[in-house]
Write a structure and sequence with these properties.
single chain, mainly alpha, three-stranded antiparallel beta sheet, globular
Length: about 375
């Protein structure tokens, strides 16, 4: 292992070679993202009315906040859709180092913000940042840059880097985001052309580590046992899963109507954030929920399609990383809501309430749109 953070300066010019970059963005992908964000704004308002009145005496509080973040995220998306993504290659190391510092900062008194037993936020006084969300984007950029150049035997460096970033996220604790980071990293490592023997080693190691982490903390162990036996404790550890299944089940084929959710009246925990897909299922039914799932499949397919049309490795891996990130995160969220996966507490991309998540995913989408401009 040559170094913990392998230098990107010595990379060959081929990895960031200039193909024609003057084409138009993928308009269909852009329109789908705009529609999904607009739908998300509507659902956030719908799902949050009860708690907005309870906590702020203002039924519009959450939609106003989400609208503000959506506007900021839209500007950032527009910027990155015009900013030549190849310049990110030289910024990969500074971005990753900044992320690591921010992940440390959540534990510093006066900077880190504790809530609900976790320390996941940094308070800069004029705004609050969730570094784990930023870690997804910076890790994708760094790995795309690093893995785009040939290098022998970098598995140890890869594991050390991933272990440090993911370890800091787990300490917050945030196992859901840690799983997403691991998934993104493994996908990029695989598509970079790594030897198959590395995956023979990686998969059991990752599986064992995640299992140990899942049973090490009492609340995680409770979530795992609830997933295996959802009927065992419907008023305790299994309450959220039970209520989400009630919401989706009551929606039937066509739903009970937009705005008519009963679960949003403080029956379903995190109705406007992690559990928002259950509200979608309740109000729009099987067909509405399936429609949302298909939109995510389309976004991932479109991103992979963009990746196949890029000639140079950095852009290809960057597009694959962003697309995989959206696919993995949406699968984990939706899978948890329909009891196919344990609850992990991750937001639904583009839809769930939350500033850091929305802004970062829109920034990543802007980069993906910029990559779509490239012509081989």
């Amino acid at each position: 292992m040559k170094s913990f953070f392998p230098s990107l300066r010595s990379a060959s010019k081929k990895s960031v070679s200039s193909a024609s970059h003057g084409g138009a963005v993928d308009r269909l992908l852009l329109l789908v993202i705009i529609a999904l964000c607009g739908f998300g704004l509507l659902i956030v308002y719908d799902a949050s009315v009860a708690i907005a009145i309870r906590d702020f005496n203002n039924p519009l509080y959450f939609i106003q906040e989400q609208g503000k973040w959506l506007l900021i995220g839209g500007v950032i998306l527009l910027f990155f859709s015009r900013f030549d993504y190849r310049r990110l290659y030289g910024l990969a190391v500074p971005l990753l180092m900044s992320t690591i510092l921010l992940l440390f900062a959540v534990f510093l008194p006066g900077l880190g913000v504790a809530a609900l037993g976790a320390r996941r936020w940094v308070d800069f006084h004029f705004f609050v940042l969730q570094p784990a969300e930023f870690a997804k984007l910076s890790l994708v950029i760094y790995l795309a840059a690093w893995l785009s150049r040939p290098e022998k035997e970098r598995l140890n460096a890869f594991l050390l880097l991933l272990g440090m970033v993911v370890g800091l996220v787990i300490l917050e604790p945030d196992l859901g985001t840690a799983i997403i980071l691991v998934g993104i990293a493994v996908v990029l490592y695989f598509f970079s052309g790594a030897p198959i023997r590395h995956f023979v080693l990686l998969l059991p190691i990752i599986t064992i580590v995640l299992f140990i982490l899942a049973i090490a903390a009492p609340y995680r162990f409770a979530r795992l046992t609830t997933f295996l036996h959802p009927e065992a404790d419907t008023q305790g550890a299994g309450y959220q899963m039970h209520q989400s299944l009630l919401a989706i089940g009551s929606g039937g084929w066509f739903g009970i109507g937009v705005g008519e959710s009963r679960q949003k009246y403080e029956y379903l925990p995190e109705a406007n954030t992690d559990s928002i897909f259950a509200i979608i299922g309740e109000e729009t039914g099987f067909f509405g929920a399936m429609g949302v799932a298909i939109v995510y499949l389309f976004i991932v397919w479109r991103g992979y399609r963009i990746a196949t049309r890029v000639s140079q490795p950095f852009g290809r891996l960057l597009a694959l990383g962003i697309s995989s990130w959206i696919g993995i995160q949406s699968t984990i969220n939706i899978g948890a809501m329909v009891a196919l996966l344990p609850l992990t507490g991750v937001p639904l991309p583009f839809i769930s309430y939350g500033g850091s998540s929305l802004i970062v995913i829109l920034a990543a989408t802007g980069i993906l749109l910029n990559i779509s401009r490239e012509r081989n």
